[in-house]
Design brief:
The complex is a heterodimer of chains A (about 300) and B (about 290). Chain A has 15 helices and two strands. Chain A is mainly alpha-helical. In chain A, a hairpin with a 5-residue loop joins strand 1 and strand 2. Classes of the chains: A mainly alpha (about 300), B mainly alpha (about 290).
Amino acid sequence: MKLLLGLALAAILLVIGYFTFFTSPVLALDEKGCLQCHNKPDIKKTTQQGQVISLFVNEKELDASAHRFIDCDQCHSKPHDTPAVPTKITSAEKCGACHQYERKLHRESIHGQSLIRGEEGAANCVDCHSNALTPHSVVRVLSPESPAYRRNIADTCDRCHGNEKLMTSYGILEKTYESYMRSYHGKVQTLAKDDLRKLNMATCTNCHGVHDIKKAKDPTSKVGSLANLKEACAQCHAGADENFARSFIGHEEASLKSNPAIYYIERGFLLLTASVVAGGLIVTTLAFVHYTWRRPKK
Amino acid sequence: MATRTVSITSVMVESKVEEIVRFTIHQRIQHILMIVSFTMLAFTGLPQKFNTWGVSEWWVNFLGGIEMVRNLHRFFAVVLLADAVYHIVYIFGGMAIRKQPLPLSMIPSLKDFQGMYQEIRYFVGLSREEPQYDRFNWREKFDYWAVFWGTPILGISGLILMFPVQVTRFLPGTAVPMAMIAHSDEAFLAVAWIFGSHLFFTHLSPGVFPLNKSIFTGRIPVTRLQEEHPLEWKRIQAALAVAQPEAVAVAVEAVPENITVPENIAVEAELPGNPDALPKTPNNPPNEIA
């Protein structure tokens, strides 16, 4: 009996050990064997314009990406006969060969329109869908490590929208990330990071749209007019009217010029709080010092 | 026990009056409700204010998630608002039904500023004279009035934040961001004052450390009253001196260690200072001797 038990235990350990140590990871398909050369980090070429570009494909990232079972020549149709280095818009077009609906929306969005104008600062597909900014590392939106996962969206937008220099060149002066994090929507994002029940709390894309993001001042934008903004609010706040939409005072910090009422309320409460807290601290400290060192012995 | 006839003054000389009732049962219940609701509101509100701090996230998860925290916050907000209503009804209902005097001793006056000035001079060492306080000192009055102004601010702004869609049907939209600023700042002020100053002076100062039980038992030892509220003590002494000595003696008889002046004793005295701090009618002595 003891022997049998011992054998059973050994068998269980063997099975567990096998699955722990001898399982192989999921590998990218790579039917044509491209990775045999392209997985070397130092592989590069000089273009006709004399530009040195890396041809390295990170195999590890590819193995984990959503595209791991798509063969390389699906996108790289003539791999060794590519005329020009892809730009942001041409690589977006490549994605659009399959993702046609998203391509259509993106082309009409402010990001797509800027790319078409040749502005390389605007976002294309991989800017939001890949952590390494390459199609080889795109992961599914529902995967928590994806930059387009709901919880990561604000940080992903902030990659560019927190870049003050880039944003100033487009005339966007608002500190969007900070103002979002001050709002209840942002607060929930930070306080319920691992709470799946709160995954549906509003983030950037809920009001601004996803692939079809327009300029906030564009009247066709989801936040372009009070009527549109009301619709955006009413997605979650049932019964919201235009007056409710007015309660959003913009991502801009309230100033004397932009919003005097809020500015004065803010300053007034700051003054009140600071003076009461400071007064309390001073009296308490004086009393503490007095009671500790100066109190006459009885 | 043999029947003795003692005058009230002699009772005090023998220091048998050990404690004075400082807070009525309603005031004590109100303060306990306030402690519970305020503490829970602070513990559920602060992580929402300082949401970017790592400890806030940990604490919210510990309490059961953000939705639980918000529900707790709302529940205890209702408790606090009910407490505020209780207090108002107690003050004005007491005036109407029980013919209590309006507690004028809580009204701030020039004396409070003098007391504050004198106390700071005393703490710093510029003066050797401790300020002489009556029923409430300036800090106690500030505690009270800070709650008095803070509760409506926090209550109204909290309700706006709780029902933004309904409220903006009849209020301008900017009421919501204004309410958020007001709620956040006023709450911080309250928490900072209570934890920074109120708790220090009520529990940590010499004579009361480590715990001042007055607000829970309603009683204050005469020795401490003498030290902290000397003017009030003098007026109580004056009132007791003219009280009917026989009646007190009966009480002494009944409870030798713990002297109680029953409610049917008429205490009538011409007293200087705040008239409401001492009983005018036989039915409602705010300061009974215990």
